[in-house]
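Protocol step 6 of 9: fold each sequence in the batch and record its structure tokens directly after the sequence line. For illustration, a two-sequence batch is reproduced in full.

Sequence one:
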Amino acid sequence: MIFNSFEFIFLFLPTVFVVYFILNKINFTLSKAWLLAASLFFYGWWNPIYLPLLLFSLIVNFIIGTTLGKMEAGRKKKALLTAGILFNVGLLGYFKYYDFFISNVNAAFNTDFNVLNLILPLAISFYTFQKIPYLVDSYHGETRGYNFLNYGLFVSFFPQLIAGPIVQHNDVMAQFLNKENRKINYRNIAAGLFIFGIGLFKKVGIADTFAEWANKGYSTNGELNFIDSWVTALSYTFQLYFDFSGYSDMAIGAALLFNIVLPINFNSPYKALNIQDFWRRWHMTLSSFLTRYIYIPLGGNRVGPGRTYINIAIVFFISGIWHGAGWTFIIWGVMHGAASVINRYWSRAGFKMPKLLAWFITFQFVNAAWVFFRAPSVDAAVNVLKGMVGLNGFSLPSGFQNTVLSSLNLPYYNFTIAESFQWVAIALLIGFIISVFAKNSIQLRDQLKPNIISALYIAILLIYSVFQLQQVSEFLYFNF
């Protein structure tokens, strides 16, 4: 089930909400069981075949975590933790990377090993990154007292199950156990609906429009010229931000209805003044996970400049391959690793540059790196980048005109190609202004004053968005 669907908005979410708070007045264990069952139903709605794997992983990790919490420190405890981590990494690796590995072996050594064409289980990347920290915290004795119901709810709580934010057990479990959170909180309902509405509009009103232009460009077989390449690259840059931040907003909003505050995942990343600042703002829960469970254990910045740079490169290599089994993702991760090393060296040397120039360089680097992240192949990415620097010419292809007009749902009035491009330029400018200059959704939520104006504002966004639900589209991070 997806957030931007009639089933979720008008059936699933209201039903789960009403029954949950009714059961809270009867028996809290029943209400948690209801929420866990509803979350598993939410997960299985998309494709029930994935559900047994999720349950199997839940049970195995709970058994290992519980055992770790009871063991005394020693080699056996470390061995069990290692086995638990390898179990999770192995499960993710088999489904996500087996075919990629075999395909590259066949290409490199001219072999003919069978490719299994495995279907990636929904959300496996996200729930794997929740279970590993749970095992590590269990090893340190920080998860005692959890039963399977609490653990299952922590991992599978439906707002954040599919695409984050990636939560740690201490982010949410204390909230579920808080007696005050068992009561309906009208302030949280107002804030939850407010940010959910903003997230829904980001997805169906903004991201899906940019998606048509990005998809057009990345599916083109021929060369892309200067203008078309920039439209393609910028369209995806804004599509990805509004799509993923929109999902995170909707997740945070839906959770607030149940009085659960999920961690912030985006903080205006396109306002960043350097690449380190960008990663403090983009997919913040992933950055936190990589820092806490990979960068710091490797030694972080406590091991001298040379080792620090290697640690940074390793973290971003892992980030790249976590996002997808493909060389484009690896290149994207390596690019961000290299940029982060340069930024760290620049800072250590005490160099500075004007803020506007720093922002411009950061944004353009992120935009160029997204080309590899989105492109179906390295050749396709190179084609777009060549066009962006003018190596493929400067004229606007005539076929682009109809794509623009159809995506904007405008009547066809024999617009010229130049007039069609104006619509693109206006849309890109609006996306740029919102993402770089406007307050983000979390700031708006925190400043929310429930009144007629805010009610009308969110009602307009919701009404418009609901009318767009006939064109159902997946969230981008469902693919990762």
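Sequence two, same batch, same settings:
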Amino acid sequence: MAEQKQSSFGAFINAKILPPIMKFVNTKAIVALKDGMVYALPFIIIGSIFLILNSFPITAVQEWFKDIGWSVFFNQAYQTTFAIISIWTVIGIAYVYARNEKQEALPCGLTALSVFLLLQNLVVNSPLVSAMGKDGAGITDAAGKVVYTGTQVAEQIDKLPQVIQNYLTSPVTGAINMTWLGGQGMIAAIIVGLLVGWSYTAMAKAGWKITLPEQVPANVANQFSAMIPSGVIVTVSMLIYAFFAKAFNTDMLQWIYDVLQAPLQGLSDSLGGALILAFMVVFFWFFGVHGGLIMGGIGGAFLLPNTADNAALLAKGELTLQNGAHIVTNEFYNNFINLTGSGITIGLLVFTLTAAKSVQFRSLGKVEAVPGIFNINEPFLFGIPLVMNPWLAIPFFMTPVVVALSTYLVIYFGLVPPTGVAAPWTTPPIISGFLIGGWKMALWQAIVLLISVAMYWPFAKKYDKYLCQQEAANEAK
């Protein structure tokens, strides 16, 4: 009867719930978003490596790098990879959109980058503004040591004529603001990438292009084909920039951040956001749909900016919740919600390797042993299977939720630090914890593994007994 109810419920989900969700997930925009953001991942990982070196979890090593002057080089590598995540995002999304529409993709991606830069004020504050005053950062040398305090800087500036003071503290024009190239520009980058991808391909399909004679080399002709769509998009973007400047005395990126990104990041960074994310990953997987790809693609739009914001704080040595650090980041998702694979199935693996009596469990445990260390658990998802399996549904659904809740709380109460760097998602547990948050994070990951064992063990034991009975019945036939 229970299995019949489960089958009826599964049929309802597959017939009524999943089709509209999958239709949404497979729209052109969502596919471009999901696949386009992947282009940023290598730079996030590479930049994180240098950020880890610059903020090494062992204080003595960190200080040694500063003393020998290498911290500035590590920071340079971080600033040109992870810190400009929005550039990789806007190019990647527009590129994938055009590629999927069978259009010349690179010109579309470069047009999106041009628009992304055009829509922001090319102005940055004078570094003296943040250096001056009692709470100012002061002036540092190449190794990051303060050579002039904020008070000392202010005292020296005050001795100068007012005209020179105004000149020194006025904003610097003609400069690209690094703030918008990082996490704070992510939602704007997504919007620009999608709109440019859509409008560029629409014009290209409509034949808005300059056609050159056949004798002209293809690589040259392709660039002329891109000229009209790119020119129209850039012109419209200039008018949008002018509208925001004249009407609101701001730029579009600042407006998007204030109206959209800040509220959405707040929602994603909440306890409720963490629990929904943890539940939805296994919800999709339970019905045979790749929950990791779906939630990683959609959630990444908000989680990656959270990680980037934390990385910027870590680079300044200010990664604390009091300074605005986020709890729920992309690393929270990868290294806790999906630790050892969707459903956090390490507990099930431990049972199959140490206590299972059925041939099916023991055999699949051996197959999963190595992949499980590297956070890959498809052998369990489809081999046991966990998909549509009522025996293991409770721990499969609840383990990620319990881990998301407890991890949020230990970070919230300061027992474990927030994460500011990324590690490859295949990095084994405990090692990944150390890399992204030091020994405290590594210790907490070890505790999470024990939570998984405790959650799965009683249910796996009952299911193993059922499998043994099935195997015995089959042998008796």
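Proceed to step 7 once all outputs are recorded. Observation for sequence two: The chain has a mean pLDDT of 88.
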